[in-house]
Amino acid sequence: MTFDKYVAAGAMIGFLTVMAVEPALAHTGADHGAGGFATGFLHPLLGPDHVIAMIAVGLWGVFLGAPAIWVLPIVFPLVMALGGVFGMIEVPLPSVETGIALSAVVLGLCVALAAKPPLWMAALIVGAFAIFHGYAHGAEMPVASDAVSYALGFVVATGLLHLCGIGFGSLARWPAGKLAVRAAGVLIAIAGGAFLSGIA
């Protein structure tokens, strides 16, 4: 199996996983169950703002090329896990929902514009937004959940969403595919703007 086929297979698994989950319209802060890994795994998939931002990270990584295509989807979950710890121990962090919505706007625009900053800058942008996403996951952890299993669940789900973005972003190898990927970036930015206006 070639490298491209591995990426396509992984993206398909991630896509099917995402599609199998009933979507939610926003964060409710509600207890999604008392499980550990499964509850953590579902949490990112239940928030469309999380989903589109995670996919945008994968899409942007494709435009940036190697090594960013793998660095960004590694940086995001690692920093997100730290944000999750902050949320679990209730470290004050203002404007979490605004930060999440802004992540979709900014990352969507980076894809739409095919922005190519230096790798360190791209990683810094992605890492900064990861704090907000992780914080939301950690703060909404059900009381009865095992923290480590829960965190592992939302990190794995996030990785699959990144893989979906990478899989779709692979279309950018062709001119028409590049337009489709950039159009997806526009839609992500618009959706992020809608989330942002809903918060304000």
Automatic annotation (TrEMBL):
The keyword Secreted does not apply. The keyword tRNA processing does not apply. InterPro entries: HupE_UreJ. The chain crosses the membrane at residues 42-63, 95-114, 119-136, 148-172, 179-199. It comes from the Bacteria. Keywords: Membrane, Transmembrane, Transmembrane helix. It holds the Pfam family HupE_UreJ. This is Urease accessory protein. It comes from Kaistia hirudinis.
